[in-house]
Amino acid sequence: MTRIRSIRTRVWNWTGPTLPPQGNFCTNASDALYERGDAMASFRFHQWLTCEVETEDGTIGLGNAALAPTVVKKAIDDHYAPLVIGEDPFDSAYIWEKMYRRTHAWGRKGIGMTAMSAIDIAIWDLMGKLVGKPVFKLLGGRTKEKIPVYYSKLYADTIPAMQAEAETAMQNGYLAFKSRFGFGPKDGMPGMRENLKRVEALREVIGYDRDLMLECYMGWTLDYAKRMLPKLEKYEPRWLEEPVIADDINGYAELNAMNSVPISGGEHEFSIMGCHQLLERKAVSVLQYDTNRVGGITAAQKINAIAEACQIPVIPHAGQAHNYHLTMANANCPISEYFPVFDVEVGNELFYYIFEGDPEAVDGYLQLDDDTPGLGISLSDKHLQHFEIME
């Protein structure tokens, strides 16, 4: 038996080139405020945290988090690492409960749960490496020959630009696409029409034999969403994502009960119980927790079981290796979100610049290797000149 001897955290601050923000790029929760400048700024992830959990024999498990990395680093270094060092990594359930319960007064949501997630993901990667098995094999094994993915980009732009991007993605074999709305309540009826024009334009390109998902990123109000849903029905969206702010579970439930367009959400929820509340209230028709916010792989598997019992599909937020392993091992996870390899824009793309080994989609699918232990990713040294790394 080997025990955990150290936990190393680093914050990777991207200093390389980024695509500049543009107006009406994506609605978001800040749209309700009077703003000058880039309202999307606080939702861009140009920093990332890596968490390396090392055992006495020198094996290292790799975890990560993108939410408020400098604060999460402080939480891990000062509060969570001392709880974990000295433990057997295969006591992962005990370690999770220890982190959760010993910090319960302040850590059960937000920064604390994000810190727990990074450590937990690293421990699962570590366990896979110690036994020479991929994480999805530890979670129950393969439920799919390969994982279908949906193209997750199509931020609001001019109609010709969005159509051209959709056409290129379609030629690359994608069978499902997600687009972002650029207009919300502050833009009134003219903005509502602009939203509908773009949905119609995308359907003109991809047709109706391919799925189209639509995202609001918490930028609408309940009233605005109730007005929009009937107008969207004829475009047959697979779901409408995060139409209202994450705390408005009543609003989610009311919209979902309209039986107009399926409502999805959960990426800004924390913990098993938080996701259970969404399911219990029938607030979503698709659950989209974020593994590196919701408590890591240990919590995600419990949430998957609850969702399966409710017959609500789970499609974790973002691509990334940890989500692919969960999707491969769960029949109730039908498809994965996939951010294409791209220049740094919102920040989800940073995963490709920090890590090596994250699978790339081919003809709308991706594959996991049965013989690669752990999560199958490692830290890359190819782009170090574009990062300032904080130890």
Proportion of strand residues: 15-25%
Shape: globular
Query: What level of helicity do the residues show?
Result: 25-40%
Low-confidence stretches: none
Average residue pLDDT? 96
Distance between the termini: 29 Å
Summarize the biggest pleated sheet: 8 strands, mixed
Computed Rg: 20 Å
H/I helix tally: 13
Question: How many strands?
Answer: 14
Structural class: alpha/beta
SSE string: EEEHHHHEHEHEHEHEHEHHHEHEEEE
Short description:
With 391 residues, the protein is an alpha/beta fold.
3D structure, described in words:
This protein has 391 residues and is an alpha/beta fold. 37% of the residues lie in helices and 16% in strands. The strands form three sheets. Strands 4, 5, 6, 7, 8, 9, 10 and 12 form an eight-stranded mixed beta sheet that branches. Strands 3-2-1-14 form a four-stranded antiparallel beta sheet. Strands 11-13 form a two-stranded antiparallel sheet. α5 links the parallel β4 and β5. α1 packs across α3 and α2 packs antiparallel against α3. It is globular and about 65 Å long. It starts with a strand and ends with a strand.
